[in-house]
Amino acid sequence: MKMREKAQVMNAEEMRRALIRIAHEILERNHQHIENLVLVGIKSRGDILADRIAENLDRIENISVPVGAVDTRLYRDDVNLHEIKIQVSSTEIDFDVTEKCVILVDEVLYTGRTTRAAMEAIIDFGRPAAIQLAALIDRGHRELPISADYIGKNVPTSRKEFVRVQLEEEHGVDSAMICEPDSE
Question: Is the pTM above the cut of 0.90?
Answer without folding.
Answer: yes
